[in-house]
Amino acid sequence: MKVWIDMTNSPHVLFFTPIIADLARAGHEVTITARDYAQTLDILRMRGINATVIGRHQGRSLVKKAWGLAARSARLVAFGAGRGFDVAVSHNSNDLAVAAWALRIPQVIIGDYEHATLAYKITTRLATEVMFPDAIPAKAFVAHGVREERIVRFPGLKEHVYLSDEPADQPVREMLGVAEDEIMALLRPPATMSTYHRFGNALFDAVVERCATTSGVRAVVVPRTTEQGAALRPAMPVGAILIEHALDGPSLVSQADLVVSAGGTMNREAAVLGTPAYTVFAGTLGAVDAELIRRGLLTRVTSEDEIVLEHKSADRVGWSVENRPIVLAEIERLGGDARFAGRSRRRG
Asked: Helices in the chain by DSSP H: which ranges?
């Protein structure tokens, strides 16, 4: 079976790393394409994954995003034509959704935030199957245009797919100069380049200030892109650490004493790895985060003073779920299903 995986953002590399390895061990041929955005290419290199780089992020402008979608999709069509791919897979890549549909390749789209409305209006209509965590009600994706029979759900989080058996052992505290007796607060800014978060977040700024000015606490800020890091740098309080190169995310999360994020992935990693997590996300709360709050693995705060700045308890445990076999089985099923051979994609 020939599998085509497209990665368009840094967390996708973490998610697909064990899937690529499992597919290769099963004798499948895996081809990777990637978009130049955030730390995607750096993390691919760190993990020794070869990828063909096609296109780059087009910034905040909706007009440029539309142009970028058309241009990159066309380049992916040219790349994929004649290669005999049996199945295409992505974590909500708009570009691959269009290209695979045009090339009549069965495709599975994986998502975990139901309010990325603009993206899902494209991907869910073109995908053969849509997979997402079972914390999200199916009706949320049906509302985006996907037919219910094309929905596949899996237990837990997408982060369980790659954190279930991967040691997080990069010595990041030592690399960053954070002493063992210091409280390490890992802080993740909002995804201001995304269409679902196109506004500022004063609460996140207040959290950075509090963590950076509290004795015994080291604020470690992890920007999403080089551009975001450059914009944050002039306002960084004295004592805060601004990470300006790719580091292993799970290692950062597991060695931190707490995580505060205005996004999703690092908070969900914290829930799995047993690190206290706080969300200051200013957009519409997703069902996955609501489930983590219900389980006591995530706290939603409205003030920086609500965050508890203390060392992580040594006996704190995370949330364990084995769900990667479900994702792998669906990729293999779709890639080998004769019903889809030579047929155009179904529209929702």
From this structure: 10-25, 40-46, 62-80, 94-103, 117-126, 138-142, 158-163, 172-176, 202-213, 226-232, 249-255, 265-273, 287-294, 324-336
